[in-house]
From TrEMBL:
Domain RRM: 31-103
Species lineage: Eukaryota, Fungi, Dikarya, Basidiomycota, Agaricomycotina
The keyword Transcription regulation is assigned to this record: no
Protein name as annotated: RRM domain-containing protein
Gene source species: Serendipita indica (strain DSM 11827)
Superkingdom, natural source: Eukaryota
The entry's keywords: RNA-binding
Length: 568
């Protein structure tokens, strides 16, 4: 059995045999849940009683006016369990809607139900040579034709009216079915907005479906589709049973189909969608529905929905490339810290307006992504490069605290000594760092300053020398600890976070592992992914190294890049 891992933002989606999803894992640990449609009859004590079943304490922030509440768990695992259990559960007189806190997410995956139906009312006028043939054919009333039960009435002695036909069928098949001479087909297409409103009202009238919200999806002429987000598996089965097979009169008696499906969601700004909507319009996808608003003036969610996971995966690969765009590279990712400064953000905004591309600087991954048409991306790259060339010629001044400056002079400056002349940088030994050089020189300096800041924060724990935040071992070598931990990150994990991630690593690999890199024995979490080298895993107790993926690949949790634990 083969498996394929697809990276989607902060998610890893594993497809088995290219079809079924075997696992979906998130790099972000969500601990906040948002509850909607919460009745005023539900008290905080009732909520706490529901939370208690997940074995974790949680704080409840209630907004009775908006019928909402936010639950904050201490850990991500009980939050994940609560999402699956509480979503669409009846509390008091109504069912509540539970979602993860998506305020900082740009991409995520939803589970739910895909509705599909024919929107046109199809009728046929069938003519016969004699009245006897017409009378005999009248006996086919309520007969099945291509999965539909027909309604047949008499218009005249030799003509019959056939209603509730499928939206699409071969005319010759119907002619043969009735043994008629001629046939005239009429198709009446209703207004999509009216049909959606009527369908949503009808679904909410079904038992247990009063709180459901149906998102309309664009479909081909004569077809309609809708998406209902729902995480609770039991509720999915219940709702699908209630909705599947409905024959609304406003759909001409067409049957509503309900299938379990999944949805990829991208959160995009107006500038972003304006840069890529023409590419999305030209895209041809099969068996999936893509919903977006090209004229939006506010932040929106682009949705890709399908019940066939093969087609969902194929469509996702095409759309994700368009929306996320390309990484700006020149042999390697091009990055400069100025992109996230106030001046840099203003310049990127100007680039987006002039080039009609969409440029986004990601501080965490230290990359710049550019989305849009090829000519727009070329224009954006030219503007960005001119900005970097301007920075290369300028002198830059960084003000540092006294303690950090001392650490930099003692430990950081020696690391830069061999490369200063190469980078054409000048650094003064005051509380200001002044330098001039290429973007490579600037990034090397910023990295060393980050490492020095980490050492200063460790020293504040006590003692004359920095100590490891995990095992309190003293630093014996600049920027490297005797215990093997490497402080390449600007933050050190708390003991609680360390235990959580180490347990997750053991669960995934079913073994204790150490990690090695060109810097010596280090922890995987401390290695910044933008500077990470290919790693080698060494099973404890053995000396046989085994190649493992690059630290930036989807198989290594991206969240580990900012945490450290003791290598065993």
């Amino acid at each position: 059995m083969s498996s394929d891992v697809l990276t989607f933002g902060d998610w890893d989606v594993t497809f088995t045999d290219g079809a079924a999803v075997s696992s979906i894992s998130s790099h972000i640990l969500h601990t906040d849940l948002l509850l909607k449609n919460l009745s005023s009859q539900v008290t905080n004590q009732m909520l706490q009683a529901e939370i208690a079943q997940f074995g974790s304490e949680a704080s409840v922030m209630r907004d009775s006016r908006r019928k909402r509440a936010r639950i904050r768990f201490l850990d991500a695992e009980p939050a994940k369990q609560a999402l699956a259990v509480l979503d669409s559960k009846r509390l008091g007189p109504s069912r509540i809607e539970v979602t993860l806190d998506r305020t900082k997410d740009l991409q995520w995956i939803e589970d739910g139900i895909l509705l599909s139906y024919d929107t046109c009312e199809t009728t046929a006028s069938v003519s016969f040579l004699t009245a006897e043939e017409a009378t005999e054919a009248l006996g086919l009333n309520r007969s099945m034709f291509q999965g539909r039960r027909l309604r047949v009435t008499q218009e005249s002695e030799t003509r019959l009216l056939v209603e509730e036909l499928p939206a699409i069928f071969d005319e010759d098949d119907l002619l043969t079915f009735f043994g008629a001479q001629t046939i005239e087909i009429t198709r009446d297409f209703g207004e999509d907005s009216d049909i959606h409103a009527l369908l949503q009202a009808l679904i909410r009238e079904q038992p247990g479906c009063a709180s459901l919200h149906v998102v309309p999806l664009p479909a081909e002429l004569g077809r309609g589709a809708g998406w209902i987000r729902m995480y609770n598996e039991e509720r999915v089965k219940e709702v699908a049973t209630e909705v599947r097979g409905l024959r609304p009169i406003f759909l001409g008696g067409n049957v509503v189909q309900a299938h379990r499906a999944q949805c990829f969601v991208w959160k995009v700004s107006p500038e972003h969608i304006h840069a890529v909507y023409s590419l999305l319009d030209e895209l041809e996808i099969e068996g999936a529905y893509l919903k977006y608003d090209a004229k939006a003036t506010e932040e929106q969610e682009v949705r890709l929905v399908a019940s066939d996971l093969r087609k969902l995966r194929a469509a996702h690969c095409k759309i994700d490339v368009i929306i996320n765009g390309m990484i700006w590279t020149n042999g390697g990712p091009i990055w400069d810290r100025h992109w996230v400064s106030e001046e840099g953000r203003a310049f990127i905004q100007e680039v987006n307006q002039v080039s009609t591309a969409y440029v986004r600087a990601n501080m965490f991954e230290r990359i710049v992504r550019i989305a849009g048409r090829e000519e727009a991306k070329d224009c954006a790259i030219a503007m960005l490069q001119s900005y970097l060339d301007k920075l290369d010629k300028e002198r830059h001044l960084i003000k540092l605290p006294k303690e950090l400056m001392q650490e930099f002079i003692t430990h950081g400056l020696p690391r830069l000594g061999n490369s200063l002349y190469h980078f054409d940088s000048t650094i003064g030994k005051r509380q200001d760092v002044e330098f001039k050089g290429s973007d490579d020189a600037r990034q090397q300096l910023y990295l060393v300053l980050d490492q020095c800041a980490t050492e200063v924060s460790l020293r504040s724990r006590g003692g004359d020398r920095p100590t490891c935040g995990i095992c309190t071992t003293m630093v014996t070598d600049p920027l490297e600890l005797e215990c093997g931990h490497y402080n390449a990150s600007s933050k050190i994990a708390t003991t609680h976070q360390v235990c959580v991630f180490y347990a997750e690593l053991r669960r995934r690999h079913n073994t204790d592992v150490c990690w090695r890199s060109p810097f010596g024995l280090i922890c995987a979490g401390a290695l910044n992914i933008s500077l990470a080298q290919p790693l080698t895993a060494l099973n404890c107790g053995t000396s046989t190294p085994t190649k493992i993926p690059h630290a930036g690949s989807p198989n290594v949790p991206r969240a580990l890049s900012v945490y450290a634990w003791r290598a065993r």
